[in-house]
């Protein structure tokens, strides 16, 4: 009787509460409960921006009703990744006459539908679309092209060689290009990167401020992006302040790209930079480029030495407080004075890291993964001790070998567990050290004195953490068959195990955690600590922990999952993983779980347990399992899940397939890009792109 009535709160408080409710629920359900909520749910602060990109329960009818009720009030609409909606759904967007920003990445849309829709959106200034095979720019009406001429921000994902709508966008200030073109068609024919006659040399870049291109593996993607860059090399926009190209593997520099870079060095001052490694390695480019107030640098996989990094980028210790995001992933010599005679496993020069930390004191995102960053025995100069000064960090990626205590490695002889070969050979029987399951007992152990424990204690507001073995490679690469064997972990990483994982539990606000190739995991007890303490954890990715011949942490993982009430994405990659009844029963405690991916060579699954799990966890819309089961078992289970749950879960995406099957790459190409990019494929995501690149 003394309870608080929600309706007695002020309108301001109620509006703040309602802002956490999906717009479809507000408009179609909540506003029908009473007059006060009917008015508040249509407040401009709630209808101005509509986000449907991860509203997996939305369907065509809900979108139709939503657009009919509030279409004229919507100024920003994000439908990115709504792959399950039929293309006819796009027709209802025409009701949103006042749209300024529209994101349709991942949605099915034809040239004719795009033309019809854009013809009615005269106020549009920001657009994101996919360009699929069959796209024909000649089908775009004059009214559509008039709308595109006013668009200043364009994000375009290309699945076929084409300029898309770029030639129509004559006022472009921001251009984001994602190249996802495969080298071969489904029929096995080699594709060409040449564009249609008449399409070349027509992009309008004169007002461009931001140019971003991300390439998937493949030579066709490289051919097409060169055509986009050809116009830039003729005349570099004088207002260009962000130039970013993310290209895997080798992407050779040509005469045209060299002219472009020379022109940039003469005419522009940059705030964000990322280039293919071949364009930076061995060149004096960084010495000539000018920077204004840089906020993002990526030198991923470059052979840039620490000496060059300090001299040419930081200018010998120049104040770089504006820099908020730095990606040095795979930059193996970036913390050493020179790279000519240095081995990748040699100790780092702590003075270089210290200069970096002092100059870039406002870093929020830092990626040092995929390299051997070994600290020396000098007191106070350990990598973890220096990084603890970066109090503003929100995301951090480190190699496993960088977090080990140097003294512990020097003083402690190798244990039996350290000497176990990290291969798929005959199982070796060893003595297993017992670790306490009780959190209080763990706190009494000596791990509190380690440098990594201290680092975790100093980064209280860290939201994303990746600890990845420097030689780790996923068994499931992008466009190739599964990898049979993996490289052994770094010798310095051999002591990293349960106590280091327990140290992560200090991160109260942790939302995303990736652990890969931690060889000394014996029981996984640290995972339980994380489950208990990190109550905001939404994304968890575990790969190759402990011995490779046995999943030693299964019991601890199941205990951990019982506490992960906010977990939405779970990715597990471990040989011989047994996805049985006990595992799925524990996983059923994760009531918020939406996406599950398991990659396991020689792994097994229990079909009945999977079906029971899917029935209990109503939010799950993605189930990807690449195991050691037969093709028949996989197909039967996949069909059963789709048949039983597709009707109630429109976004349901199920792929169950033998990991080592020769047709795996063909199956992967049909996975929606949202799932493939965010969870199914393993990669480091810290500082992968500049912050707030797209909304």
Automatic annotation (TrEMBL):
Gene Ontology biological-process entries: SCF-dependent proteasomal ubiquitin-dependent protein catabolic process
GO cellular component: SCF ubiquitin ligase complex
PROSITE patterns hit by this protein: FBOX
Pfam families reported in the protein's UniProt record: F-box-like, LRR_FBXL18
Residue stretches making up the F-box domain: 3-50
Annotated InterPro entries: F-box-like_dom_sf, F-box_dom, FBXL18_F-box, FBXL18_LRR, LRR_dom_sf
Family matches, as PANTHER family: F-BOX AND LEUCINE-RICH REPEAT PROTEIN 18 (PTHR16134:SF19), F-BOX/TPR REPEAT PROTEIN POF3 (PTHR16134)
Name of the protein in its database record: F-box/LRR-repeat protein 18
Organism: Phalacrocorax carbo
